[in-house]
Amino acid sequence: MSQCEDVRFSNDTYRVLQVDDEGGQDSSGKRISDLSGPLAQDKFSIFYMSTYQTDFVLIKDRRLKEAVQLLQQKGFEFDLDSVEQFLGGSPSSIHQVDQAVRNTSQPIVVKENFERSVLSDKLQCVGLNPHYRSEWAMTVLKILSYPELISSDIDKRFFSYTATSDGISLIANQHILDLFEPEAIFRDEESQQTFRVIQVNLAGSNLERCGIVWSISHPLATEAHINLLYLSTFKSANVLVSSEDLGKAEEILADDLENIKGMLAEVVLEPSL
User: What pLDDT, in 10s, does the model give residues 105-117?
Assistant: First the structure.
């Protein structure tokens, strides 16, 4: 890592909470808001990833046990076998210790300017058929590593690829999806919904900041009932809303960034434990 001057990374390691919900993508916005709300209130810095199959919440390993118990207290159900396997059972005692440490900390309020932009691509969220991996693997490699072989307009591209043992998810525009054979893609044939991306540049400050996911998702999903997908990255928050909802979502998330700056101005840094 030290030899790669352009690479920036977190000093923390992250663990993943997989979110299984029968509501699927149709209720993803409310799910994002409901999950991120209590975590924001208790000052957890998180990353959130929406995919075709499910959602993922990335939490720092040192605070995972505390986060699990907090969500259990808020009524979220966990697979007890996985809790036992990866966390060694109930994390209640560790929660009590961390709670005491957190209560004595004095988080710093950070005020910054965040640039917002709307990307031109109309995107779809689909799954990739693993049985055709040998046919589409090279296509994915080109998209990720050699985008100039796919499109000349690489500066404005948006592409998300997530692979787990449960499935492979792709978020891309129609030009990219046309590179795959129809049988290699899983999608809801009854829905031709396309997404537009509202991208908030966080300049890397989202590694330690608490409440960013909730501050963005709550006014859209809970207050305005606009469904959304969400993708956290090292430098940005990417909010995907339907093309039809784009105008309303932009208004909520602020003309000239005033509203979004106001929401994020009160977000505090995650305390050191």
Answer: 455 555 566 678 8
